[in-house]
Amino acid sequence: xxxxxxxxxxxxxxxxxxxxxxxxxxxxxxxxxxxxxxxxxxxxxxxxxxxxxxxxxxxxxxxxxxxxxxxxxxxxxxxxxxxxxxxxxxxxxxxxxxxxxxxxxxxxxxxxxxxxxxxxxxxxxxxxxxxxxxxxxxxxxxxxxxxxxxxxxxxxxxxxxxxxxxxxxxxxxxxxxxxxxxxxxxxxxxxxxxxxxxxxxxxxxxxxxxxxxxxxxxxxxxxxxxxxxxxxxxxxxxxxxxxxxxxxxxxxxxxxxxxxxxxxxxxxxxxxxxxxxxxxxxxxxxxxxxxxxxxxxxxxxxxxxxxxxxxxxxxxxxxxxxxxxxxxxxxxxxxxxxxxxxxxxxxxxxxxxxxxxxxxxxxxxxxxxxxxxxxxxxxxxxxxxxxxxxxxxxxxxxxxxxxxxxxxxxxxxxxxxxxxxxxxxxxxxxxxxxxxxxxxxxx
Length: 443
Fold this sequence. Notes:
single chain; 443 residues; mainly alpha; 75% helix
């Protein structure tokens, strides 16, 4: 049985405490009125003029908008700055929750494929998926608060945006209102989150029951349930990506987006399995996990990173080449104003995994795997940041205390929940039909 070390537990609590304080600071320091924003904008303008001299002053005077445009700009910036701590919280929350979903999907695939190599890792996967419960609850609360107008993350939720004659009316969003309306949207979220958690609970329950069974009844139940779950998952995952990420840019769409989001959190989930496995190995646990298991996980890290890159390039190249205004503005915004995170994600999620993991021997060297894994996870957090922040914060973005604190809080919660769950059952499934094959897996 695994024992959750007091040092790691204390570390997780410290991360959560620092995270809560930083998140609170982010909300407390946001502008409280449009007048606050006007003061900020005037200070920025004065700073630019001071640094740029007479030429900058002339340029500002020439480009100065009229009073109405200036007021509209101030209101727009006000909403963006108010969104900043919310967006930081949203990115970190959905990222860690979807890591868990990547692990759950990988676990379901192993069950349906009747894979002989992976059963010794099942309890690691089940421990990681324990985070799905608190992660889903927090995320659902954020969705509810968005629908109650505590933030402006989702533009299609704005007052009067689907009402003809309203100053906020948007005919494109109004045309999508049969699908993008809060009651239907939140019901879909409840069904998806509930379905994922139900499969996670029942599959773990059957797996534990199989340890004490005299036949393979519970294993067969899990096989059938996993097959049904994967069908539900592939449909719900696509719709989830439209609802929770793509609808942040309600004028933009991509038919490839569901697969793209899936590849991002799927490789993140596999990487997390690898890192948790290596940590447990370093503490003397998982004695039946050998270098061949580690090598296989590294191959998945490498392979899905290449798959993500294929989808990234396919989506970007087709939209950029077609140059349709309502589509290409999505990438134009990110390239012009999020240059470092946009291209940085590509480097961290493709170039570095290629360099570190393409060599067969490197896939078994622990320090190389850990370095590659940390870069992959950070790279895909940046990928989610790129998908969400431009639509919610726009040009007002910067990496500050709210962003760092949100990651620290959810990382602390993730560590606490996952490693607490690992203490609840033996780390080796006893009566899985393929457990002996998995123990002696070598190639």
